[in-house]
Amino acid sequence: MPPSIRPDRDAVALAASGLLGGVLLWLLGLHTQGGHPFSAPWVTLLPLTVMASAELLRRTAPRTALTLGVLALVADQFTRGSLATALMFTDVMYAAVLYGPPAAARRLPVATLLVTVASTIGFLAWFRRPEALLIGLVVGLVSFVPALTGVSVRSHRTAADAARLAAAQTARLAETDRRQAVAAERARMARELHDMVANHLSAVAIHSTAALSIDDPETSRGALEVIRENSVEGLAEMRRLIGLLREESEDDVPAAAPTLAALDVLVEQTNANGAPGGLVCVLEDHRDPRAAPLPTPVELAAYRIVQESLTNALKHAAPGPVTVRLDRAGGLLTVEVTSVFGSRTGPTAPGSGAGLVGMRERVALLGGTIAAGAGPGGGGTKIWRVRAELPVTERTTAE
After folding, report:
1. Fewer beta carbons within 10 Å, N or C terminal of the chain?
2. Band of the pLDDT at 232, cuts 50, 70, 90?
3. pLDDT digits (tens, 9 = 90+) for 132-151
4. CA-to-CA dists, residue 313 to 54, 118, 177, 264, 321, angstroms
5. Euclidean distance between CA atoms 109 and 115, whole angstroms
6. CATH 3.40.50.300, domain 258-399, yes or no
7. Residue 382 phi/psi, 5° resolution?
């Protein structure tokens, strides 16, 4: 859509005030010069009217306005002259630099400076009197000074626009960082919630199914005891998570994150929960007890991987051994959990696949690797293996 050439209110106001002021000066007989070829008083109104028309185009068509203004100013020199015409020309020159294209903003100050210097030298050589310097001064005030002012205002506006653009970009980047931080925190919360509660809820689901499907008072009582135990522990884990999410006061002490030293308890709990399904969990820790302690993020990730793997075994594994192996060599902590792969005869619990996603996210954050899948086992059976390798060096952990 082509730009509108309709003058704005400021242009109309300047044109009207300049024209009325010039007419008032003409009525009072105030002129800037005399003794010119067109000495009739009414002729002075012609350049004045053209200059007022140029004022109407000062912003919508600045180059056209400047062309008209130059012609009107030159024509005014052959009349008695009007101060209003000269004053309006200064505004037309200022607007041409301020609202015109960048090339005009660069060239007009240089051109007006050259015109000022050339006119000063020319009139000085012509009149050979010091008063000729005043003509050059007037030319500079009418042309060069407005152009220089327009350049200054334009540069300040450009700097202000650049600052606003930079501020807007900074705000967008800050919003993007905020959204990424919120997404990362929500993902971390989802992993913690799943890893802390899924084990207990899976046991509750399996044992409640067994209690409902087996019509035996002793079996139902044992299942209810396991359900109650897992419900209490799950509630405690949930309270711990809620406590971590709340703002801590100066007297609050954050709850300690689980470590690999608590794997014995986790294995015993899995044996209790998996007994109805024929699962037997064994822990094999081949780490050197004299080795340096593991970084906290690595130890937490390893614990959660074992916890989620045991939860999956409780849900899906066929009867048989569930082995947890830990080893540390070459700057890597290896965590491996294997279980019998096959159809399960006892009660099961549904899975969503979020646990494997959470394990991969934890390992990726530490720069490690993880693999999960079925493979051949001893005696012609198939096993499900989860194997993760976590870097334990301080440099890799920091990354």
Report:
1. N
2. confident
3. 788 888 888 999 999 999 99
4. 87, 95, 38, 17, 10
5. 10
6. no
7. -110, 145
**How far are the Cα atoms of 19, 33, 39, 76, 128 from residue 27, in angstroms, in the given order?**
12, 15, 15, 17, 35
Q: Per the structure block, which two tokens stand in for 48? A: 């004045």
Say which amino acid occupies 54: A
Who wins on pLDDT, 33 or 1?
33
- In degrees, to the nearest 5, what angle opens at C-alpha 169 toward C-alphas 168 and 175? 90
| Both structure tokens of 245 | 């999410």
What is the rounded average pLDDT of the residues 22-50? 80
Q: Please give the residue that has the higher pLDDT: either 208 or 71.
A: 71
- Give the span between the Cα atoms of 204 and 350, in whole angstroms: 12
pLDDT > 80? residue 263: yes
Q: Does pTM surpass 0.85?
A: no
- The 3-class secondary structure across the chain, one letter per residue, is CCCCCCCCHHHHHHHHHHHHHHHHHHHHCCCCCCCCCCCCHHHHHHHHHHHHHHHHCCCCCHHHHHHHHHHHHHHHCCCCCCHHHHHHHHHHHHHHHHHCCHHHHHHHHHHHHHHHHHHHHHHHHHHCCCCHHHHHHHHHHHHHHHHHHHHHHHHHHHHHHHHHHHHHHHHHHHHHHHHHHHHHHHHHHHHHHHHHHHHHHHHHHHHHHHHHHCCCHHHHHHHHHHHHHHHHHHHHHHHHHHHHHCCCCCCCCCCCCCCHHHHHHHHHHHHHHHHHHCEEEEEEECCCCCCCCCCHHHHHHHHHHHHHHHHHHHHHCCCEEEEEEEEEECCEEEEEEEEEECCCCCCCCCCCCHHHHHHHHHHHHHCCEEEEEEEECHHHCEEEEEEEEEECCHHHHHC
Pull the structure tokens for residue 69.
């203004």
Q: What is the pLDDT of residue 152?
A: 92
Q: How many residues does the chain have?
A: 399
User: Can you read off the two tokens belonging to residue 229?
Assistant: 């135990």
From the number of C-beta atoms within 10 Å of its C-beta (0-12, 13-18, 19+), residue 147 rates as buried
Q: Which of 179, 347, 165, 333 is nearest to 273 (CA)?
A: 347
Task: Tell me the C-alpha distance between 128 and 131, whole Å.
Answer: 9
Find out whether 279 and 324 touch, Cβ atoms under 8 Å. no
Q: What is the pLDDT of residue 398?
A: 38
